[in-house]
Design brief:
The structure is a homodimer of 331-residue chains. Chain A is mostly helical and 331 residues long. Chain A has 15 helices and two strands. The interface between A and B is large, with 39 and 39 residues.
Chain lengths: 331, 331
């Protein structure tokens, strides 16, 4: 518990610094760009986000030996790309809310949300190209390319009731893992890490991203709507089959399996949420999914053992706490 | 006329080569990416486009001394960004058709058009970063950023009836000029041009882009719908005040000016097209706009005089013909 407090304090300080750099960027834009564009960016970027991706860039760079200020600017690019993705996702998912605020596309319009996303996209790529060179840019662009590819897969998989574990891991890797892994990898590159260090941090990001998404999918069933801001069973209602259900299907007996299949095949699934939750819980789907998240976190932490110099222990500990925090989070 | 034939033949050969590189890129993607994504890209990219932007990259590089094959790959990136912009524009403008084919967003859906645009965006940035370095990437990203900024300006200006010439030039520079100028500038950079050569080609692109857009706006009133694929007066109907009208307003007597203002203020402007066209024609708005396009072309050609070595005359002549072709085009 004390560790969590320590982490929270450290993250808060860094997030405030990151917000400061983002505000600098916006102020520089305001002189040259359309006023409405700046308003949309301000609205969409400052919404209480935890700035996890920039934080990972800064920490990875520092762990590899470079703690300079441009690491923050590089980190902001990851937040810009993340925000661009959310602007466009909210149009695609027809979302009305994002983090307790009206979504950008609802507040300002679809046109504005598409354009502001494209703007952030280009701005983030320019920053990464400038600060992290062609190799960093390639990693960054590949993460974007993979995210889009993942969305297309999801469009096709939405209807599939036979979705298995490999499909699930493939999808969350693209949806969440790639950009988080890219933040760690590009940060390490920028920090001047050796190939082994860069690879260790990339893998940390892969495992962290997967753990993060598994917990997200667990919270969708088990979270407190007052804290998560989403209705329980939202994924199921939208036709998304996530890990707890996939594992429950594998672990259930014949009767439960048949009942689950019938529930998942329903056209209007809102009525099925309570019963699906009960079956998944009874056959151990939630517990098994949590065990997977724990194992991802263990792998994430394990890979950082190569950072064994005394001077590296401060950052390494934050990385470890961050991974454990993912398991503890409630929203 | 013979010059035009010579140009057309040269452009056709180069466009076929550019299409070949684009097909290679798509084939490489198909192995790794979602099938539907590849189908959307194939549909959206191969629609009889003239490949002007890639052509400018290749020619600029060659004029500066480098005629290698990667110049074509770099050129394709400009076509990808251009296509990404069109995918998103068709959503924004609620367009049903593009170049005589159903628009991507109508054929495959808004979600698919947003995502495929984002994909091409990232792919184009990665290519430019790889082949043209941080400076080339910065020019490329700034063109994108400027285009978005221009779209926001246009959103605000759509309602303005007092739009003047400076607003118009500012808008077309962003909408068309920046990316065409970037194609020339990045091509020149890639080709190893001197600072003076890079700047001369950038300016050529600025003037060419402006001439191109002015002629586009003239064709909207004066073109043959069977060739342009658009109804006459489409811009006016959509509330876009373009150069012929702006100049007509400056040149008209008191009575015509008042009548124009009344027509432009109408809610449904479709009924006003014939009368606006008649007034603009009578007071000389079309002729004055065409004179501006001719003067842009003259400036474009003039700036290329620094390429005075015997070995540069072949490419330089194509640049000159291309600029003159812009004035002659009918669609």
């Amino acid at each position: 518990m004390q560790q969590m407090e320590e982490l929270r304090a450290a993250v808060k300080i860094e997030a405030a610094k990151i917000d400061g750099y983002m505000r600098q960027d916006l102020a520089a834009l305001e002189a040259a760009r359309d006023g409405l564009l700046c308003e949309v960016l301000e609205y969409g970027l400052f919404n209480g986000g935890k700035r996890i991706r920039p934080l990972l860039v800064v920490l990875a760079s520092r762990l590899c030996g470079n703690g300079d200020e441009d690491a923050y600017r590089l980190g902001c690019a990851f937040e810009y790309l993340h925000a661009a993705t959310l602007f466009h996702d909210d149009i695609i998912d027809n979302s009305t809310m994002r983090r307790g605020k009206t979504a950008v596309c609802r507040q300002y319009g679809t046109t504005q949300a598409i354009l502001a996303g494209d703007f952030l996209h280009a701005m983030s790529m320019a920053t990464v190209g400038r600060l992290a060179g062609p190799r960093g840019l390639e990693i960054f662009c590949n993460a974007t390319i993979g995210m889009v590819d993942g969305e297309f897969m999801q469009l096709r998989n939405a209807a599939k009731e036979t979705l298995g574990e490999p499909d699930y891991y493939h999808a969350i890797m693209r949806k969440t893992g790639l950009l988080i892994a890219a933040a760690c990898e590009v940060g390490a590159l920028y920090g001047g890490g050796t190939d082994a260090q860069v690879e260790a941090l990339r893998l940390y990001g892969v495992h962290l991203g997967c753990a993060f998404q598994i917990v997200d999918d667990l919270l969708d069933y088990q979270g407190d709507p007052a804290r998560t801001g989403k209705a329980v069973g939202n994924d199921l209602v939208e036709g998304k089959i996530t890990l707890p259900v996939i594992l429950a299907r594998q672990m259930a007996g014949e009767e439960d399996r048949r009942r689950l299949a019938a529930l998942l095949a329903m056209d209007v699934r809102a009525a099925a949420v309570a019963e699906v939750t009960a079956i998944v819980s009874r056959v151990g789907g939630f517990a098994a999914a949590r065990a997977r998240a724990e194992s991802e976190v263990a792998s994430a932490v394990e890979g950082l053992r190569i950072f064994d110099l005394p001077g590296q222990q401060g950052e390494r500990r934050i990385f470890e706490q961050l991974a454990r925090y993912v398991l503890a989070r409630e929203k």
